[in-house]
Amino acid sequence: MTPEPGQDEALADHLRRVEGYMRGCVLLRYPRTRGPLRDELAQALGEIMPASVRTWVEHIGRAFRIAESQWPGLTTDIDASMQRWIRHIADPEDCDTYVYLRSHARRGFISKFPASRFLSGQIKMFQILAEHLRGRYAGDRPHRAELLALFEQECDERILHITDFFVEAREEQLREQEATYRRSIDNAPAAIFRIGWDDGAILSANIVAEQSLGHSSEELRAMHSWDLHPADERDAARRLWDDTRRYGNASREDLHVRTRSGAIVPVFINSGVIEYGDQRFIQQICVDISDRKLLEDKLIQSEKMAAIGQLAAGIAHEIRNPLGIIMNALYDLSEVVDGGNAEVREDLKIAREEMDRVQAIINNLLEFSRASTVDLEPVDVNDLLRKTLMLMNKYLQSSEVRVETEFAATGFCSANQNALRQIFLNLITNAVQAMPHGGELRIRTSLVSPTRLRLEFTDTGVGIPEPQLKDIFNPFYTTKSPGQGTGLGLSVVHSVVRRYRGEIRVASTPNVGTTFTIELPTGHDTAEAAAG
Fold it and tell me: Quick one: which of 96, 110, 135, 218 has the most CB atoms within 10 Å?
């Protein structure tokens, strides 16, 4: 059987293969060339086809529960199909019938049903046609036997082709599904690994795994699943593999993976057993949860700030009452004791100074908890910075800290002047304390946009180690020696900045210096934000 020009090579191979099987099994009793017997059979089938189609549609329509409204369309389709087949019986070189069948088995209506359904219909048509042929040639039994033998050969050939077409179509669907699955795995927003059931070796990994870890597929296949983790987590990773084998699935969110560059990335790992045919392996999906961890840390920080704020307000109010009594007692003592006694005067002075210090701590607590009154007013940030620096000039000089300023025309910020002054005092004081042997403090203001201004405080001090940066805005957290800090300074700064819908960032390099960057809204939007 020679396919027509233009037919794809796969179909040509299929037609030659089936013909070879039939020839090898001596199923081709009649030559595959056009001749009188084939022409006569084709003519007879064409004449009996209308009646055969009507009978077939009634049988199949009921058997397959096809609505009668669809029978006319079914009649047209089966008649067209049989006419193509009749042309092939007359001329075996005409393969149009198999071009259509192959296409429909893959994408047509018949592809939506089991092959047995379609084959049952074909076999029924063969029976109906054979019955008509027997009746038509009842008077010439020898010739009838020859025609029926050729008809049976053509029916067998058609059944073989249809069976192969359906099998090939299903195989093609499986290949497409596998390719689609591979693409979905490769483009999934997570690293996915196929892990050996017996030894935990990495059998394959998707593209995301290669890109995120920095390893090639060959390098990954030379590892075990637990080799991806830091040394102190490998036992836990091995237990995850064991638990998956034991229970069918397991997960952990307390592990990390180490990239080729040495970076440690927190991951959530979901691990499950996959059984496909005679294959059994473990699939691990590793999701980078760095962003989630960051959000969780921020949530914890927010909840901690809220709780500490409530605690601070309560403590501040409780302390303020006895503090007032002590202040009155000090005043009374100063009136009745011997004013000429230098030691007594010094003791009273120290007592008053320490009471002022306690009062300052209470004010910080109240500011942190937002229990103090917020009076909004237009604040010239540059002017307030100048006044603050003048106030601290002696302290700066005695600490051998040189101040460089660069003030831009930032306009006014609608805020609480005292609160902003407290921010400046805290940041300048922290900068000075970070330069125990003197240094330089650079203060810069700029206008980021018409509605946003920026303040930068940069020192040349000892810097802050990276692990501590995440904690410096926590209440009562301090890196200073006991008795030198309350741990509230930067908490107050953070609280005030956030109150006015601002942002505060810190960048630091040990032994180089630290920069605090504050951004605040300008104009009346700030006042509305704070009041709301």
Answer: 110
Residue of 255, 241, 246, 244 whose CA lies nearest to 287: 255
Q: DSSP alpha helices (H): ranges in 91-221?
A: 96-107, 115-136, 141-186, 207-213, 217-221
Q: Residues near 25 by Cβ (< 8 Å), separated by ≥ 6?
A: none
Task: Measure CA 3 to chain center.
Answer: 51
| 29-47: burial string, b at 16+ Cβ within 10 Å, e else | eeebeeeeebeebbebbee
Token code pair at residue 341? 């006694």
Query: What digits encode the pLDDT tens for the residues 468-477?
Result: 877 777 765 5
For range 480-494, the mean pLDDT? 59
**What does the DSSP assignment read for 299-346?**
HHHHHHHHHHHHHHHHHHHHHHHHHHHHHHHHHHHHHHS-TT-HHHHH
Q: Would you mind telling me the total number of residues written for the chain in this entry? A: 532
* 8 Å CB contact between 234 and 217: no
- Between CA 101 and CA 88 the distance in angstroms is 13
| 7 CA to centre of own chain | 46
Distance of alpha carbon 489 from alpha carbon 497, whole angstroms: 13
Report d(CA 190, CA 208) in Å as an integer: 6
| 3-class DSSP assignment, residue 485 | coil
d(CA 333, CA 261): 69
The pairing of beta strand 264-276 with beta strand 279-288: antiparallel
> How far is the CA of 493 from the CAs of 81, 191, 200, 213, 510, in angstroms?
84, 41, 52, 39, 22
pLDDT tens per residue, range 227-245: 999 999 999 999 999 999 9
Residues 6+ apart with CB under 8 A from 406: 442, 443, 444, 445
Share of the chain above pLDDT 70, in %: 87
Chain segment 163-188, per-residue pLDDT in tens: 999 888 888 888 888 888 788 888 88
Q: Are 445 and 382 in contact (CB under 8 A)?
A: yes
**Phi and psi for 300 in degrees, rounded to 5?**
-60, -45
Burial class of residue 66 in the structure, from the number of CB atoms within 10 Å of its CB (0-12 exposed, 13-18 middle, 19+ buried): middle
Can you read off the two tokens belonging to residue 100? 């259509």
Q: How far is CA 80 from CA 76, 407, 487, in A?
A: 6, 89, 90
